What does this fold into?
Amino acid sequence: MGSTVKGTMLLTATGLFSQVVGFLYRIALSRMIGAETMGLYQLVMPVYSVLMSLTAVGFTVAVSTWSARFHALGDEGAVRLALRRGLGCFFLVAVPLVTVVAAASDPISVYLLGDARTRLGVMLLAPCVLLTGVENLHKHCFYGIGQIKPPAASETVEQLIRAGAVLGLLACLPAATAEEQVGVIVLGMVCCEVCSATVLVALFRRHWRRTVPGPARERVSPRRMFAAAIPVGATSLLGTLLGSANAVLIPARLVAGGMEAGEAMAAFGVICGMTLPMLALPTGFVGALCLVMVPDLARRTARGDRRAAAGFLHRVLTATSLLMAPAMTLLAVVGPVVGQMMFRTQAVGEFLTPLAAGTLLTCYQSVLSGALNGLELQGRAARNAILSDGVQLVCTWVGVRVWGLSGFVVGFVLSALVGMGLNLASVLEATQLRLRLFDWFGRPLLAALFMGVWCRLFFRILLDRGMAGPLACGLCALMGVVLYAAALFAQGWPGDAWRTKGRGRDGR
It folds into this structure.
């Protein structure tokens, strides 16, 4: 447990730093290219996500899980063999696929994405996918064997290089059209991935020169690698396709509802390129926790220790609520002012409160999905994710045309609620962990609600008295921490919130 906590803390610090750098990068990017070009860039990214699902996602999960399993059994040679097999299978699938996509970039941009200005960005995704796959396979092998520092260092450097490369290229290579601007952004991503992949490969070779693993005691054949990767990759692909279809549909359905094409692309750019990334700023903890939790649970499952896994999950859910509930509440209060200062548009704060609630639900959904993957229940996690994405897609198709972006927001909240509920039910069934609604959700949400009401009043008073926005946000955040802590203690926290009790179905 100690190594898990240390790994989570390190990855959380790295993730938060990366989120801050990425947020500042998006601010600068939005000011350089505008909301409409930002929307075009957001259209290109689903293609990138689909390609990664088709080529890398299944192999990274297989390499991470097997690395954790073989490392727990002391078979370090099989760990290295699993990585080699994963890389070989990845290139076997990825090289012909990205070649076809680059050659067909014109029809993809026109007929699938609905905007010919995305063609150059789609074409330049080919080298980016290959490099990202190499990087992710090495990174998840490190996670599997419990080596957190090398990928954490790489993640930190990667964000800085990406921001510098993209913004530097945009400044040095003036683009006359929106298509060229999108192409320059993707070219900057390629430069970043060159550095990241090189660093991780060098760090991995250095690690194995120090450990000198013996020959593999367990054989990892390409057929076995494909057998493990195909179900995960296929379900990830289906979920990615649903998410990508949703992203492509938003501007199209806005136009169908009577909005002009340029205005629709700008609105799409604001909500998906500005508002949601701002809300994602505090969620570095969740991503770090999932990266450490999956191999940790895989090791416990390999040893047949599901009892300890259930107790670990109880603490994970409690920690997620305690950190994410106040963060989302505080952003709902100060977010409109922060968005106005950073992105220079009031539209950022238009749907901030319901989107903050939806983001909190997605945090629970992500943690529970990672738990299912660690418990070797990837099929259930994939099924739940697909059902959740299906809810969002239906709401986008039906609601956006009638209610505009409000339809997307409703779908965002409902889909996260469905995904969280299904994942929670699956985890409870698999681990026989007793449901503790008050510890996991009730106490933190009540404290966050109390904090939010008073912080909103305090923040409004500060602004009405003429205080500068940044100072008002800082004072409101400090007051929020004090109020949240006071509300928790008033409810008897910590009490037994971190302990699993010796009663109920779980027997802890």
The two ends are 17 Å apart (CA to CA).
